[in-house]
């Protein structure tokens, strides 16, 4: 196609990628969040199931781990690091976050909460960290 001066018209212009500074900041923020989640998981689980009781510091740290993990899915800038996370994981984290944040501990199934913190969440945290580190090296 040409315009009136017989010059080719531009049909497609690729949008520039996110500015390197924006990408670097998102990566740093994501990794900071993943490290915080890991620290909260460690604090929640180090004393074992016997010390993981409602209103204990360990229980509060477990709640913070869930709250921070669910928050990752609310930031569009983090989507590339979370791309391999199944939708049901994000949904489960949001549900647990809502229970911890709004319903209080009375509504939480403590055994299910413990399994989430010790078995189910740690592999995802490790994958998120690896995805971000892989992204930073490319």
UniProtKB/TrEMBL annotation:
It comes from the Bacteria. It comes from Microbacterium enclense. This is Uncharacterized protein.
């Amino acid at each position: 196609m040409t315009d009136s001066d017989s010059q080719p018209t531009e049909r497609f212009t690729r949008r520039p990628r996110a500015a390197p500074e924006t990408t670097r900041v998102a990566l740093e923020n994501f990794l900071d969040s993943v490290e915080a989640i890991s620290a909260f998981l460690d604090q929640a689980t180090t004393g074992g199931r016997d010390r993981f009781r409602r209103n204990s510091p360990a229980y509060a740290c477990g709640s913070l781990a869930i709250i921070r993990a669910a928050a990752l899915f609310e930031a569009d800038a983090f989507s590339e690091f979370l791309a391999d996370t199944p939708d049901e994981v994000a949904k489960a984290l949001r549900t647990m976050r809502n229970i911890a944040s709004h319903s209080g501990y009375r509504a939480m199934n403590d055994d299910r909460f413990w399994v989430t913190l010790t078995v189910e969440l740690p592999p995802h945290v490790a994958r998120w960290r690896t995805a971000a580190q892989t992204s930073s090296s490319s």
